[in-house]
Amino acid sequence: MKKIILFSILAGMLFACKESKPSRAAVDDSEMKEIVLSNDSIMYIEDWVQDVEVIPLETSDKALVGIVDGVIATDSNIIIYDWQQTHRVFIFNQDGTHRATINRRGRGPQEYMHLGHVAILPDNQTLAIRDNRGKKVLYFSLDGHFLSSAPTGFWFSKMEYIDENRVVCATYGVGKDDPGLQEYENRTDLLYFTDKAFGIIESTLPPRYKNSGMAIEPYIRKFGDKVYVNRPYSDTIYQALPNGLKAEYRVNMEQINGMANMDPDITSDNFILLSEKKAILTEYFTENDKYLLLSFITPPRGIAKTYIYSKQSGKAYVVNNTINKDDVLLLNVVQSIMTSVKDKFVTVIPAYYLLNAGYIDKKAGKLINATMQRPELAHITEESNPVVVIYSFKEGL
């Protein structure tokens, strides 16, 4: 009887291990929307932007933003992280007042060796900071207080929380050299779905290109409670769900001479030649409740061009950012898209942009910039923190 019981326990354990073994995540493209881009349908930015709110971020010794590497916006807060220069996370209230700064660079248990990607949890009250070198994720309150940390068994660069129990993580496909993935069959996949303790549940997106010089890490963006993923040089944007990927948009680039999904054997030299002739969808796509903004690098000089897709009409337009002299601020609005909140877009503009962009008043013989046109910017200097601009588009696109 004891042998039978022991056998049953072992069988149950083996079955449980087999059931929990990570597998390939499902990819559903049955309801994908096609976005047809054209340079013939033009949207003039000054005619459609409305409800512009300008928020200068408080400048103090405790809150000096260096480079804006990422922005998270909620109904109550604006969070900026700078991993290149100051290695800090800056938290501001919605009116721009400084709330807290997370400055924990170091080797201790409550510190990060390298400030990596920053994500916000579904409660909108907790920040997760990826320490790439320390192989851990640290959690902080929006008041800047350390809460806890979690080790990560494998290397990844970016992460977003799909819900309170699922995290999606992006890698460079180096799993063959990652000790934490040696037992995993699909260890060269680029995208991993984990539980909240970063145990792998599923993965997907095996590398497409054989040339190691091609950028392959998936882009992950989060707007509100939706997480989106797309590959570099791809035409498809997926929504990450707890049970896999759902193809949300396919971007038809034929009429704008765009390129995507190249031959897996493409060389770096051939790719450079192609990019000098064709437009490429970048990672800087931004969605809100009503619109999707898509950013492209266009030939021959690598100029950024923005397209806007209306969810209501199903139409897409190329954005013409040529404006009159009534509002210099709008020169920077669409070209600097960062994130969104509900039906609004959020842009973070460095102060020196607002001081140096504008037009020359020939009679006065001086530059007219945004700080001269808007009273709320009158005290901006080149040493000031960035300015947040929140706006929406009028109905009817």
Keywords:
single chain; mainly beta; six-stranded mixed β-sheet; 5 helices; 41% strand; globular
Q: Can you give a write-up of this model?
A:
This protein is mainly beta. The chain has one domain (30-393): TolB, C-terminal domain (Neuraminidase, 6 Propeller). The protein contains 5 helices and 31 strands. The strands form 7 sheets. Strands 2, 3, 18, 19, 20 and 21 form a 6-stranded mixed β-sheet that branches. Strands 4, 22, 23, 24, 25 and 26 form a 6-stranded mixed β-sheet that branches. β11 (126-131) and β12 form a beta hairpin. The protein is globular, with a radius of gyration of 23 Å. Residues 1-20 have low confidence and may be disordered.
Uncertain stretches of 5 or more adjacent residues? 1-20
**CATH topology heading:** Neuraminidase
Instruction: Round the Cα radius of gyration to an integer and report it.
Output: 23 Å
Count of helix runs: 5
Structural class: mainly beta
- The CATH architecture can be given as 6 Propeller
- Can you tell me the overall shape? globular
CATH class category name: Mainly Beta
Main beta sheet? 6 strands, mixed
Number of strands: 31
Distance from first to last alpha carbon: 74 Å
Proportion in helices: 10-25%
Quaternary structure type: single chain
Number of domains in the coordinates?
Answer: 1
Mean pLDDT: 90
Q: What's the CATH H-level superfamily name?
A: TolB, C-terminal domain
Portion of residues in beta strands equals 35-45%
